[in-house]
C-alpha cells in the first residue's frame, strides 16, 4: 500500500484550517482543501483494504466493495448540503465516464511497455459480467429522466428507481462473495476496492484496531475538507467562468476517483490487467448502482433536492461511453494504442461540458 508519493499533501489539511481561520481568499481555500482530499481518498482505500484482510474474503470483499466509494459519498454529501445539486449529478456522470474513458485509456497505455501494438488479453467472462452490470446501471439512470421528459404529470420516480438499484447491487455483492468462502479471485467484477499488489506486503501495515481508528479519523478529515471545499467551490467557479457541469465532471469526480485510477494504473504496469479492469469497470457500476441511489435516499431523508434527472448531454455521454466500452470488451483482447482513442473521446466530451451554459 504505497501512498508515500502523495502523503505530503496531507500537510495541506492544517494549512486549510489556517486559511479558513484567517479568512483567506476563496481560491486558495478551494485549492488547498481539494488537494488535501486526494491523499485522504487514497488513505481511505488503504484502510478499507487492511480491514478486509482481517475480516476474511467474504466479509472483507463486501466491505471493500461497499466502502470503496466512501470518499465520493462524503464529498457529494457536503456539496449537496451547500446546494450544489447539479454539480453533484455531474460528478456522478464524471466518475462513470472518467473511469471508463480516462481511466481505461491510461491503463491501456500503461500496459504498452514500449510496444503500443502488442496484443493484451483479459478475462472475457469477467468482462461480460462487467458489461451486464454497466448496462443495467445505465437503465437506472435513463428511466427516471425519460419518464420525466415524456410525461406531463407532476410525479418523480427517482426514489423508487434508487431503491431497486441498491437492492440489485446488494444482491450482486452477496451472490459474488457469499458462495466463495475459501477464496475470492482478485479480478472478481465486484471486488473493486483499491486492492494492492501482493508483492507490496499490504497485510502488515496496521493492526485491526489501528485501522478502525485511522478510518474514523480519515472520515472526519474528509468531511471537514469536503465541507470547506463545497463552501468555497461556487465563488471560485464563478470567478473563473466555469460551469457547474464542468466542475462536477472534471473536479469533484476526479477527486473521489484518485485511488481507483492510481490502483488501476499500477496493476496494469504489473501485468494484472484483469484486476485493473475490475477496479475501473466495477467502480463505474458502483457509482450508478450504489453511490447515486444512496445520495437520492439521503436527499429524501434530509430534504435535499437530489434526484436521478440528468441532462440530455449527461445521459448521452454515459450511454455512448457504456455502449462503446461494452462493445470493446466483447473482443477479449486489445492493443495499448487504443488508450489514445479512449482519452481523446474523454477530451471531446470535456469540450462539450466546458461549453455548456450554466
Secondary-structure blueprint:
Layout lengths: L3 H4 L4 H10 L4 H30 L1 H11 L2 H12 L3 H26 L9 E2 L2 H27 L7 H20 L30 H33 L3 H26 L3 H30 L9 H18 L3 E2 L3 H18 L3
Antiparallel strand pairs: 1-2
Helix pairs in contact: 2-3, 3-4, 3-9, 3-10, 5-9, 5-10, 5-11, 6-10, 6-11, 6-12, 6-13, 7-8, 7-11, 7-12, 8-11, 10-11, 10-13
Structure, described:
The structure is a single chain. By secondary structure, the protein is mainly alpha-helical. 74% of the residues lie in helices and 1% in strands. It has 13 helices and 2 strands. It has a two-stranded antiparallel sheet with strand order 1-2. It starts with a helix and ends with a helix.
What descriptors fit this protein?
358 residues, two-stranded antiparallel sheet, 2 strands, 74% helix
Gyration radius, rounded: 20 Å
Range of strand content: under 5%
Overall pLDDT score: 83
- Please give the order of strands in the largest beta sheet: 1-2
**What percentage of residues falls in helices of 4 or more residues?**
over 70%
Summarize the structure.
The chain is an all-alpha fold and 358 residues long.
Amino acid at each position: 500500500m504505497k501512498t508515500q508519493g502523495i502523503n505530503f499533501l496531507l500537510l495541506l489539511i492544517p494549512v486549510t484550517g489556517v486559511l479558513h481561520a484567517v479568512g483567506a481568499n476563496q481560491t486558495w481555500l478551494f485549492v488547498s482543501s481539494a488537494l488535501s482530499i486526494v491523499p485522504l481518498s487514497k488513505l481511505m482505500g488503504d484502510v478499507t483494504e487492511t480491514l478486509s484482510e482481517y475480516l476474511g474474503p467474504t466479509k472483507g470483499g463486501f466491505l471493500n466493495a461497499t466502502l470503496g466509494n466512501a470518499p465520493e459519498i462524503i464529498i457529494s454529501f457536503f456539496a449537496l448540503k451547500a446546494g450544489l445539486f447539479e454539480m453533484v449529478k455531474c460528478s456522478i456522470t464524471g466518475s462513470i465516464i472518467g473511469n471508463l474513458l480516462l481511466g481505461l485509456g491510461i491503463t491501456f497505455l500503461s500496459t504498452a511497455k514500449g510496444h503500443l501494438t502488442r496484443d493484451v488479453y483479459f478475462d472475457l467472462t469477467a468482462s461480460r459480467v462487467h458489461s451486464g452490470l454497466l448496462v443495467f446501471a445505465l437503465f437506472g439512470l435513463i428511466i427516471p429522466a425519460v419518464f420525466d421528459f415524456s410525461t406531463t404529470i407532476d410525479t418523480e420516480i427517482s426514489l423508487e428507481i434508487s431503491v431497486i438499484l441498491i437492492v440489485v447491487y446488494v444482491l450482486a455483492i452477496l451472490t459474488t462473495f457469499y458462495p466463495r468462502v475459501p477464496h475470492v479471485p482478485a479480478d472478481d467484477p465486484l471486488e473493486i476496492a483499491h486492492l494492492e499488489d501482493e508483492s507490496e506486503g499490504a497485510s502488515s501495515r496496521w493492526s485491526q484496531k489501528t485501522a478502525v481508528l485511522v478510518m474514523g479519523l480519515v472520515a472526519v478529515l474528509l468531511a471537514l475538507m469536503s465541507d470547506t471545499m463545497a463552501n468555497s467551490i461556487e465563488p471560485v467557479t464563478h470567478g473563473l467562468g466555469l460551469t457547474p457541469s464542468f466542475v462536477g465532471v472534471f473536479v469533484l469526480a476526479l477527486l473521489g476517483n484518485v485511488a481507483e485510477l492510481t490502483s488501476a494504473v499500477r496493476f496494469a504496469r504489473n501485468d494484472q490487467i484483469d484486476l485493473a479492469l475490475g477496479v475501473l469497470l466495477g467502480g463505474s457500476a458502483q457509482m450508478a448502482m450504489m453511490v447515486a441511489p444512496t445520495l437520492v435516499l439521503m436527499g429524501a431523508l434530509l430534504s435535499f433536492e437530489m434526484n436521478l434527472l440528468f441532462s440530455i448531454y449527461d445521459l448521452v455521454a454515459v450511454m455512448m461511453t457504456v455502449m462503446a466500452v461494452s462493445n470493446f470488451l466483447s473482443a477479449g483482447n486489445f492493443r495499448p494504442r487504443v488508450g489514445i482513442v479512449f482519452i481523446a473521446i474523454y477530451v471531446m466530451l470535456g469540450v462539450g461540458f466546458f461549453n455548456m451554459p450554466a
